[in-house]
Amino acid sequence: MKHYKIAKDKKNILKEKLKLLRRVSMTGEEKDRMDFFLSHYVDLHPVIGKQERALKERQKRYSTLRATFRRLTPTFALLVFFVWGGVALAGTSLPGGVLYGVKTASEDIRESFSFNTEQIARFETERINRRLNEAHQLLERGSVSEKSVN
Fold it and tell me: How far apart are CA 134 and CA 126, in angstroms?
């Protein structure tokens, strides 16, 4: 009710101002100038409805979201590059190496995506073979004695 009353009061004030303006007399040149200025004002300050305002708001949110993604894309690409590169480098690491934990973690993640028993068995066989190869490489380097392996 209060909102309606305010709108009604504004409407009445506008009607009174229009009555006063009708009493003002202008020359043809003044009318042309006024028409020119009002036309330009309307062109620069269009009145938009609810739908247009909602559309502009959506476009503004979308452009903000797009700008955020544009800023984050290089960071995300670097992150993927370093994580992927770290996992690739970790593939050749041996127990006791800096990246060995990354290697075992990536194997665990890979194993979690194996859903049937055949895939799991194949993966576990590969993992056992990798561990045996790692032990063999450590023996060749002399990093581990044969007594600690047995």
Answer: 12
Model confidence pLDDT, tens digit, residues 48-58: 677 787 888 88
Q: How far is CA 60 from the centre of its chain?
A: 15
In Å, how far from its chain's centre is CA 76? 10
Q: Report residue 59 as tokens.
A: 């476009």
- pTM for the predicted model, two decimal places: 0.44
Contact 90, 103 (CB under 8 A): yes
User: H helices within the chain, ranges in order?
Assistant: 2-23, 28-44, 50-90, 100-112, 117-141, 146-149
Give the list of residues 6+ apart from residue 114 with CB closer than 8 angstroms, or none.
120, 123
Token pair 């003044």: residue: 30
Interatomic CA distance for residues 111 and 85, integer angstroms: 20
CB 123 within 8 A of CB 110: yes
